[in-house]
Amino acid sequence: MDWFSNLSPILQTLIATTFTWSITALGALSVCFFKEINKKVLDIMLGFGAGVMLSASFWSLLSPAIELSEALGQINWLIPSLGFLAGSLFVVVADKFLDKMLIKRNEANLSMRDSKRRSMLLVSAITLHNIPEGMAIGVAFGSVALGIPGVTLLSAILLAIGIGIQNLPEGAAVSLPLRREGYSRKKSFFYGQASAIVEPISAIIGVLAVMSVRNILPFLLAFAAGAMICVVVAELVPESAKNNKGKATFGLIVGFIIMMILEIILG
């Protein structure tokens, strides 16, 4: 771990998001071996990832944002609240825009079946949601480098691991429907892994922003928290609970508790 802690925050962020992307690629690779993945396993994994992300949103992002805002002489509730709202609105507005654009595309191409449109919507939605997830990782590692209270290297690593865990079923959730729609295994895998390529890009943007302008860090931390929670509530929880609410809920609770315990004891 010493070698990792001695790296620059940019390299740490790049390694962490390369990990999250590779997990997505691993999930997408399932299209080469399976036609379907056990839905119960996917539900538990999505629920677990959602729990980790919810816990990390508070312990690693929102709580430090409040503390730092107060330390910088800002109104300790105002900037984090604005950042949280902005992050949530980013996901909601982007979802609405994306859905509207794909509906127009479908109307312009009447030969496109509804199921294929839904598949492409899923690809685009997951790609879009990976942007704030990548940014959250970048902001976390940048905050560690700045010595922000409440943010540790371990918490940043755990955040990346949690996002990586929920990326595994997401990769499969992209590639398998495309395969069912008639795409080749190669093309289905390509789209599946490509949905997470935005994570390293947005993460580097996040860490550079944090390192450049310290005063906006509370806003960025809260923005990442708001975006992640919105993704969890709007996408991960409904998707994981679609087939089996009990298993999804169990996964979420376990993920949240494990992340919370690790943050309190080791953070």
Describe this structure as you would to a colleague.
The protein has helices spanning 2-5, 9-28, 39-71, 78-108, 114-146, 153-180, 185-194, 198-212, 217-240, 245-266. It is mostly helical. The protein has one domain (39-266). It is globular. The mean pLDDT is 81.
Question: What is shown here, in short?
Answer:
The protein has helices at 2-5, 9-28, 39-71, 78-108, 114-146, 153-180, 185-194, 198-212, 217-240, 245-266. It has 267 residues and is mainly alpha-helical.
Annotate the secondary structure layout:
Elements: H1 2-5, H2 9-28, H3 39-71, H4 78-108, H5 114-146, H6 153-180, H7 185-194, H8 198-212, H9 217-240, H10 245-266
Instruction: Show unreliable segments.
Output: none
How much helix, percentage-wise, in residues? over 70%
Taking the sheet with the most strands, its summary is:
none
The best one-word shape is: globular
Q: Tell me the fraction of residues in β-strands, as a range.
A: under 5%
- Judged by helices, strands and strand pairing, the structural class is mainly alpha
Number of helices: 10
Q: Please state the average pLDDT score.
A: 81
Number-wise, the strands total 0
